[in-house]
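Researcher: Please predict.
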Amino acid sequence: MTLAELGRLVDARVEGDGSLRITGVATLRSAGPGELSFLANSKYRRYLAETRAGAVVVDESSVAELHTSALVHANPYATFARAARLLAPDPSPAAGVHPSAVVDDSARIAPGVHVGPRCIVGAGTEIAEGCILHAGAIVGDDCRIGEGTVLKAGVILADRVALGRGVRVHSGAVIGSDGFGFARDGDEWVRVPQLGGVRVGDHADIGANTTVDRGALEDTVIGAQVKLDNLVQIGHNCDIGERTVIAGQAGVAGSTTIGRDCMIGGACAIGGHIRLGDGVVVTGGSNVANSIDGPGVFSSTTTPVETNRSWRRNAVRFTQLDDMARRLRALERGTDEKEG
């Protein structure tokens, strides 16, 4: 593909040799003459002068520093991502059901679907055109899988899971397992039946070994274009708004609502039965115990473990530190004036 052809497909302006053939992508430091690279972070600007890349995706402010051809766009990273998908498309295995797969007679699978070795498809499930089930994927009963969705090797969908169009679920993910619901009765815990399902919106991504629990009575909902990293836990009856991203090892307890366009950093602990408004950003490692209206950037610090009673008392005092500091400064000024 020529640079000019690529520029038209990703809606970027071409600077330099539009006839240059681009065969792949690489970093600024490792790219060769036929490869495309990008600059989206000023930390790597120093590599522009020495890169051997055939072309670089940059924004307008970097054009003057280039000695190569370029694709110019206001969002270099997203533009590079689109270009990379064109230059290195995902493999598309041939349609058909592998002989070792087990498909219930009542399942409805479109002609263009690939069902790989040792997959299982349950009763009443519907799989739309262009879907790919890689080896060992398990789909339970009464599931709905939208057009062009991909289940990587070893994915498990429990019963009554609905995936939208273009969803990608990575290996080891489990969607629709029972939520953590138990009622205490004297000396025993009584399991609460988890009778809901899970609904995942169009073009969502669910990372490897991530778990999304089914709802107790109503569905757990993952909105369109939500991106869940590897090793994320979503509790039962959560509702995650469109375009929200959650980084690895974060956990969201049950019945919590997270709004649209939120960003949750790695290893965050989000409490149950709370609400985060649209546009909330929570930095990595934070513990969120209360609702946040948003938007804004929020953080919490980690303190040594202590009794809950002591922690609550200290947490209240922490919120009073600003006022205490102002009062202390006022006292110090008063003391200085008396001594003077």
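Model: The radius of gyration is 26 Å.
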